[in-house]
Amino acid sequence: TESDFPSLHGADFKMANTNDPVASNIWTRDAWLEYERDVDDIARLSKGPSCVVYLQRHGYANGDDVRAFGSVLPAAARQVSATVLRARRLSPELKRIPEDLVVRHVLPYLFEDEPVGESAEDRYNQFRRMNLTEDCVGRSLSCYLALRRGDAWSQGDVHPGWPKFIFDMGAGYDQGIPIHTICIINMLWWQLNHEGGDADVMLQAVKQQYNLESSEHASLLLCAGALSLSVALHGDDPVQGTGRPFTGIFAAAQPLDLKRVEAFIVAKIGWRCLLTAPDHIVAHLLQCGSTYANLTDEEGMLDVHVRNDLCRRCANVSRMLACQDYFFSLPPTIVAASVLYHVRKSLLTEETAWNPGLEQLSGYASDLVKDVANLLTDVVPDPALPAWPWIHMGDAHDSD
């Protein structure tokens, strides 16, 4: 109902005028502000979204071709693909089965995610796969900024607070999942504009299909579907969609199967939902020794409070940047490197914030990292005290 979550109801995305401390200010609520990621959280996120889960969950959608993103598959999956397709070519019996059917309906069920060990080599291979994914997606996104700045760019009647909706709905997961979800939605808008589509037509179609109140609610439903997709790709527990905010906004669409909404998104962007988010790269860098250079004591030991402070500041900056779509146009690795530089600079000095080890890990020299970090400074001046970019929007309503 409207009173369940008034700040998300309809087009009036303002603060609720209430004394309830839980519901009074969705603009300032930050579920991760004081959360300390442990080693397991960081290691899990650094694996990135699973292409194997994607294939098993949605198959090859939107005309996906295994050759277009085969490089991001695990080595074992590539070997299985090559062996099965070679067997089909050589066997008169198997050759009767169209290759398209083999690729779309057989191969996905033969793949398995490779177990990831704890060695430096395992982490490097993992990181390399994320870099390959970044390169594959980056080739498509080279025109993103020009499209975004053009007069023809359209997101239709999208809800103005959709990124915060994703963060609020994804508050039960590691922040990397809602950040990745925002990337999926940005990818959806890019794909639509790249193909010359009409965002209003798409949102109207979603609105009618799910009997929603408005196109803005349709955009929020797409966000809920993207969150469900990201959760699945990261191997986490499914989104339930049973909370009062969710059922209040989508009351007329109940019972709601979010996997159908996932399929709608995947039909638009296909394998690009596997794109690497900057927070995935940050998680990888947080497992590397060079990240903590000059932060150890005289005996070379790293105090757990220092480590947690650095990790928390990196997380703070990553959340805020996810809400700024300009950074979606940049390679995730340079954004992640700039996050780490900005945070280390807040703890050390400009001279010691970057080092040769980090340059080798990220592939970016300090000058380029500093240039991007300067942009970050405008968005998050103090990594220890983050603030949502729309935090001021409820101020006028407070005095009502």
Walk me through what this model shows.
There is one protein chain. The protein is built from 19 helices and no strands. The chain has 400 residues and is mainly alpha-helical. Helix 10 packs across helix 11 and helix 15 packs across helix 16 (332-347). The protein is globular and about 70 Å long.
Short structural summary:
The chain has 400 residues and is mostly helical. 53% of the residues lie in helices and 0% in strands.
What oligomeric state do the depicted chains represent? single chain
Helix fraction?
40-55%
Structural class, please? mainly alpha
Gyration radius, to the nearest Å? 22 Å
Contiguous runs where pLDDT drops below 50 for at least 5 residues: 1-24, 395-400
> Main sheet?
none
Arithmetic mean of pLDDT: 82
Q: How would the global form be characterised?
A: globular
Report the β-strand fraction as a percent range. Answer: under 5%
H/E element order: HHHHHHHHHHHHHHHHHHH
Distance between the termini: 22 Å
Q: Based on DSSP secondary structure assignment, what is the total number of beta strands?
A: 0
Give the number of helices: 19
